[in-house]
Design a protein that fits this description.
Elements: E1 10-16, E2 32-33, E3 36-37, H1 38-46, E4 52-57, H2 61-65, E5 71-72, H3 82-92, E6 97-102, H4 112-123, E7 127-132, E8 135-144, H5 148-156, H6 162-167, E9 171-175
Parallel strand pairs: 1-4, 1-6, 4-5, 7-9
Antiparallel strand pairs: 2-3, 6-8, 7-8
Helix pairs in contact: 3-5
């Protein structure tokens, strides 16, 4: 009988560094969702899928720290976007693989990391990205920590588009059409899922 190769551990990174402009300037992760901050639901669903959790935030760091995980700001000025948060997370991750989710995804799939990891390993890709309903969702991804130098170079050259950077790497897309609601954009209070 063949020995089963254990899956590599994955670091988890919650991206909470945005300005929340479409949410009226509110910090999306701290917006109320079913009686508690939205990020609490994200962490609850994400924690069982990863070996460590980190939060990238550019404001309200003390509020995020109350959830008991390391919190850090981008090392770039002016809210440089999700890639700046990813760069900071890759630099701090304890494991060679890092999964990311946004702070406003309280319905993320419970098998997100497992499915991304299976595809990344099967295809020997550098990045695995979730898709649903024919759309790519680039901040729901799994990437190799070894990409840190390439990401730093992209950001230093002025690049900010997550999808463009990911497409420049060995990337595999992973369909989550069975969980499309998990990837809904929550950009305004009206977008929040109903209680229930």
């Amino acid at each position: 009988m063949d020995a089963i190769t254990p899956l590599p551990p994955v670091s988890g990174l919650v991206l909470a560094g945005g300005r929340g402009l479409r949410m009226g300037g509110a910090d999306k992760g701290l917006v109320d969702f079913r009686g508690r901050p939205m990020v609490a639901s994200v962490l609850e669903r994400f924690a069982p899928q990863v070996a460590e959790l980190m939060i990238s935030a550019n404001r309200n760091l003390d509020a995020y720290a109350r959830f008991g995980h390391p919190v850090f700001a981008d090392d770039m000025a002016d809210f440089a976007g999700p890639l700046a948060g990813l760069k900071a997370g890759l630099a701090r991750a304890r494991h060679e693989l890092v999964a990311t989710v946004p702070c406003d995804a309280p319905l993320l799939p419970p098998d997100l990391v497992a499915r991304l990891l299976a595809a990344l390993l099967r295809e020997d890709a550098e990045i695995a990205v979730a898709t649903a309903g024919g759309r790519s969702h680039p901040v729901f991804c799994l990437c190799r920590r070894a990409l840190l130098p390439a990401l730093a170079d992209y950001l230093a050259a002025g690049g900010r588009k997550v999808d463009a950077w990911q497409r420049s790497r060995r990337r595999v897309e992973v369909a989550f059409d069975d969980a499309a609601e998990a990837f809904a954009n929550l950009n305004s209070p009206a977008d929040l899922p109903p209680a229930g």
